Amino acid sequence: MLRRSREGLERLGPEQARRAVDERGAVLIDIRCDVERASDGEVPGALHIPRNVLEWRLDPACESRHPAAPGLDRTVIVMCHAGYASSLAAASLCELGFSGATDLDGGFEAWRAAGLPTCPLSGAHPAQSLRGPDADPAPGAD
Fold first, then answer.
1. Which terminus of the chain is more exposed, N or C, with fewer CB under 10 A?
2. Which helix (H) or strand (E) holds 78?
3. Which of 33, 80, 94, 119 is catalytic?
4. What's 82's domain CATH number?
């Protein structure tokens, strides 16, 4: 399944992904769970949409589409922890209509090992990543 998913992808290494974001306006989507992000940090500017909600949060026909979701014509680079789940997710996005979907070969681990920018998880409560930046904090989050 993984091999088949990767057949249609032009997987990018960390430097290629950074250039695609910086120079061509690609969108880096972090699908890691909140625990991984809290432990390892995040990539500044990456859009966080957890893997388990990725398709419906990016689906142009879904009323719950993420407000910052890119259009189907944008290059989308999916990043997980080590580059496995992201390949499956990118293939799924291709099926959804994202013709420029691909993934980060080696995931966050490769990005960090390449010395590219990371930062601690922002102060937002983890539940806000699904509800949007303007949502009230989750109950008990104060």
1. C
2. strand 76-79
3. 80
4. 3.40.250.10
27: left (phi over 0), alpha (psi -120 to 50) or beta: beta
Question: What is the reported pLDDT for 5?
Answer: 76
Question: Cβ contacts of residue 29 below 8 Å, gap of 6+?
Answer: 46, 47, 48, 49, 54, 76, 77, 78, 79
- Residue 138, domain member (yes or no): no
How many domains are contained in the chain? 1
CA-to-CA distance for 117 and 131, rounded, in angstroms?
26
Q: Which residue has the higher pLDDT, 129 or 122?
A: 122
> pTM, whole model, 2 decimals?
0.83
Q: Which domain holds residue 63?
A: 2-118
Where residue 27 falls among pLDDT bands split at 50, 70, 90?
very high
Known catalytic membership, residue 80: yes
Q: Residue 62: inside a domain, yes or no?
A: yes
Look at residue 140 and tell me if it is in a domain: no
